[in-house]
Amino acid sequence: MRVRDQKLIRAQDVLAKQLVCGDMTGKVVILMGSEKDLEFCREIAKHLKALGIEHDFRVASAHKTPEKVLEILKEFEQQKIIYITVAGRSNALSAFVDANTSKPVIACPPYSDKFGGADLYSSLRVPSGIGSVLTIEPEGAAVAAAKIFAVEDHALEKKVIEYHNAMRKEIEKADESVRKTK
Amino acid sequence: MRVRDQKLIRAQDVLAKQLVCGDMTGKVVILMGSEKDLEFCREIAKHLKALGIEHDFRVASAHKTPEKVLEILKEFEQQKIIYITVAGRSNALSAFVDANTSKPVIACPPYSDKFGGADLYSSLRVPSGIGSVLTIEPEGAAVAAAKIFAVEDHALEKKVIEYHNAMRKEIEKADESVRKTK
Amino acid sequence: MRVRDQKLIRAQDVLAKQLVCGDMTGKVVILMGSEKDLEFCREIAKHLKALGIEHDFRVASAHKTPEKVLEILKEFEQQKIIYITVAGRSNALSAFVDANTSKPVIACPPYSDKFGGADLYSSLRVPSGIGSVLTIEPEGAAVAAAKIFAVEDHALEKKVIEYHNAMRKEIEKADESVRKTK
Amino acid sequence: MRVRDQKLIRAQDVLAKQLVCGDMTGKVVILMGSEKDLEFCREIAKHLKALGIEHDFRVASAHKTPEKVLEILKEFEQQKIIYITVAGRSNALSAFVDANTSKPVIACPPYSDKFGGADLYSSLRVPSGIGSVLTIEPEGAAVAAAKIFAVEDHALEKKVIEYHNAMRKEIEKADESVRKTK
Amino acid sequence: MRVRDQKLIRAQDVLAKQLVCGDMTGKVVILMGSEKDLEFCREIAKHLKALGIEHDFRVASAHKTPEKVLEILKEFEQQKIIYITVAGRSNALSAFVDANTSKPVIACPPYSDKFGGADLYSSLRVPSGIGSVLTIEPEGAAVAAAKIFAVEDHALEKKVIEYHNAMRKEIEKADESVRKTK
Amino acid sequence: MRVRDQKLIRAQDVLAKQLVCGDMTGKVVILMGSEKDLEFCREIAKHLKALGIEHDFRVASAHKTPEKVLEILKEFEQQKIIYITVAGRSNALSAFVDANTSKPVIACPPYSDKFGGADLYSSLRVPSGIGSVLTIEPEGAAVAAAKIFAVEDHALEKKVIEYHNAMRKEIEKADESVRKTK
Amino acid sequence: MRVRDQKLIRAQDVLAKQLVCGDMTGKVVILMGSEKDLEFCREIAKHLKALGIEHDFRVASAHKTPEKVLEILKEFEQQKIIYITVAGRSNALSAFVDANTSKPVIACPPYSDKFGGADLYSSLRVPSGIGSVLTIEPEGAAVAAAKIFAVEDHALEKKVIEYHNAMRKEIEKADESVRKTK
Amino acid sequence: MRVRDQKLIRAQDVLAKQLVCGDMTGKVVILMGSEKDLEFCREIAKHLKALGIEHDFRVASAHKTPEKVLEILKEFEQQKIIYITVAGRSNALSAFVDANTSKPVIACPPYSDKFGGADLYSSLRVPSGIGSVLTIEPEGAAVAAAKIFAVEDHALEKKVIEYHNAMRKEIEKADESVRKTK
What we know:
8 copies of one chain form a homooctamer.
Chain A: H1 3-21, E1 27-32, H2 38-50, E2 54-59, H3 66-75, E3 81-86, H4 93-99, E4 105-107, H5 120-124, E5 133-134, H6 138-150, H7 154-179
Parallel strand pairs in A: 1-2, 1-3, 3-4, 4-5
Helix pairs in contact in A: 2-6, 6-7
């Protein structure tokens, strides 16, 4: 089959799917372990907005209110959702959420290099079978979420590509600018 | 709307979508920076198989053969793909791939606690705008990939839930077993 | 009041209390996150036995089976209990248990110096209001538990003192032995 | 025996014990290695007060005035006491106190992440037979002490449970609050 | 052959070479991964100027604009060039440049002791066959570049020796000065 | 000027220079602080040989025999030389050599991740004005040396490029091989 | 022999020695690698003065002016001297001095917890046969020097004991003071 | 005064002192916290013997038997003594001994790079006024002790110089040997 035909067929697929699931755009639930991290969560939200993705803020602690966490997971069970979990210090929340949902879980603990960054290991040294993944940049968490939804959402896929292109243009411009510098 | 009705409608949605995109099951491309990491990649593949997800193995180095990496990305551009990138030591591959594709990228560097685990920071301290995410467990990478595809694939979502349930049963059994121990 | 009188009165107190609560000797629940840590838990149990303290072994995961953990806590709610929690890697179990019980919680994660000991921080960097405490030695966990029960149990208090004395005698003997060495 | 009966009997036990040992409420001795740590110790005291537990402040150095430490231990030998030991840098005090008393010892060194937190290891890498346990949070030390006394003191046990409940309510309120935020 | 004769012949060699390659003085390309590091790069440039070495500033990202990096390398292929690569966080740029040029590559990441200096390992833990070398001091990068050109450029060699002598004189003067201090 | 002409002129330059300095091929002096590191130095030598570069082995300690180090530097003063300095533990040798010669100095301490790699900092935290640079791979040290000589030696430049190409082919082959694997 | 007699004889010994070597009081040479550390050296000097010990300040760099260091060592060869060596970053000075003198060498690098304290290892990971010892406290360096001279100087020994006693009294006073605090 | 005269006078001084204090040769007390470290202590003793210095082995724990430590210190109070203190893990012994004696104290903890070497900080982060100094090499501890006694003992001073010379000759021989190697 020629490339042009492939593209045509693919375009039709996309169209057909848009008809069927067009109203099911995804959403990110930013779940924080403590209200103290709200400012950091807003940073994530800012980047999600730039990528055109909706979000909800929620607070629940895996240590202190595990049943509340489970209720929230239940609440979103039937929705098209990605969790971005935000918990500082010893991060139990991310793996806890991951073990109790089939939704993707992106751990994005608030930036800290205390104790040489030892807190990060609490997000990485998860038990067997846990699929939560880690990024330490709010923008990174937003981009990762966008890419996950973009697996099916071709409009979003385009936005991610544009986002990349903007990054590249910025570097081109910077190169032009510094070359004149001495 | 009552819960029962919601479920019914949802089931119909799923059916409709199955008809439209039933043949578009996703695949994981396990991209390693060096053939030395093949054994580690097989471990990831083992868990992908257990979850019923196909995979391809590829080798390319962001440092040494950047153009080859870009070609591989091009090759998979039109496919439903998640990248699991495997690169030890200083991991340039994961962020490199992420910056040049709209597909999700899961960094899963081969396990090493050399230099107190300092290599992990090369996967985490990525530049602005990069969405690659990190897990240090092969099983974790497979589960994360499964969850991403499961956002749209309800059969796979079920499998993830069963996977979780199996984990839980194992713990129940272990509890029974140790209680008899003194 | 003279010291002798104080001692007399105190002896009577102890006697009276023995009559009332003599049958309420405490027990340690060694709760592990995974059966893999059973060998390590047996080491703790060995030292508890040496101090004459009973123990139960249990398995439950804060990440994977939080509700089971809560059930176990409920099960022991009315008993005179100290928890020794044993969870490797990212230790969510100890703070989780602590937040959901009024019993003392001693975290004793299996010995590991991977990643420069970074895992230990997951036991220390607990959220506000958490009272779980950390020791990395199985014998230390047993002695700490003994001391907690000994606050009220004067027979056990005596045992702890004897335990200390035995430690001291060992050092005395060692000194005698090495002095002859050249 | 039915649960109701158990509860009844238990209530009687508690009453009987209250009569016998009602006047023997415990106290925490906050022993610091240097007066410089007084501010940090006041933080611990604040949380003890919130939990209704009395405290004494004392200063003695395991390195410089070991005999004074031993005298203080002697002074409290006949009392219902928990030690919270506060010593920065190389913490000899906690294990020293622990080896020379049958009372529980909670090490709570003043917060420092100098040298990547290396000082913490001086509180953890204790010799064989030492039962001192570590927390790095003043509030944590207070809660741990409360839980130890609560093993026998049912009024205090209730306070701990209320303390927990207050923590939970705070999280519930925070969740309500952030949900309205965008 | 006597030392004097050796020196004579050597002087003639130098002269002959000066005639042939006198117009081929080298240049340093300071390639930064982001414009944010310009200030740090200026610091390097300051020391290059002090040693009489020309430089160009360029911006390109190994992660985001690998093809641009390759173009820059092509641009300088026929020139007498040393690269000083400046990339913070996870440094892919230095090894990337090194693998794709035959020119010497000196990695000089912007000074950071975040996470206990873990970022430095991304400059050191390079794949097999990579020859980029690391210094963390802007002045050090300039001196290293000067020494490389000085292998053939005897005028520059002299400058390096004078640079050393100035360092030594400073120390002599400091010694004089502190000796009078009490 | 057209590219072809540029190349022609350049070829002539090279020829002219070859005539003049053809007999002045460079050499690497591998200077180790202790004979214990000879095996590691042989590894460096192996890669130098593969690149067609001659080497000398020498032993001298900056701490113990500083005058001997200075003598060796004197011995090679008139030669076309690069130093690769090999000193484990606290590496004084590299910066010492660098401060006392105008030749390039590549520090290549024997591989060790003891104390979380802390020894590496003794090679990096050099005083002001020091131009020694660090690599932790014997092959990397050899490639770096080759690139320095290749600044003037076009035959060697070619060899470096071939070396790179061989690396790339190996990756191509590995990719072919793993693609057939499942 | 009775204790009183022993003391008497000892007093006579001391007297006799005082007559013979009374004019040979020792001195500390504070040798710094750079004038930048003068402020830190003054701190050491302050404590030496408090203990009645004379000092000289000197500057010389093991890396940059090794011959000057050797000259200084020669200068003091016939004197009763202890070296306190002060060099930040990669400390070559202390082991260098130690290897080239028979005098005691106390390394006291300026306080820094950069890179998680990695610089300290350059003072500790010394080559075989090196006897330089490390303290990170200026007061500690002064006390250590005092104790070394006090091996023979009984007047100084007394001063050290008084110094200790003053430390103890301070703690006693602090205890009195905090006991009144609530 | 001419150098020759100075030397003459100095020789007479030495002779006179030899007469007075000739019988007062010093001794090293190797005090270990646990008999487990005896093998490591023997290593220290081996090097002391090579330098002609006597030693005693003793065992006492600062944590467990502080009064025994104080007794040992008393026992040696009137002797010419240096302490080498050997205590693994959290080293309380060295600073404890230092605070309670006027004798020099050299901490030489058994070699361990567990937890990235964190134990070493327990030897370094000593309280104000403590003069114990650290070396991690048994040979280093012996050489340091020799140098301290050599401040007054000129025969020993000579031995230290010979020891140094032997080190140097070894390096000379190694250089000869490796130069022939290719």
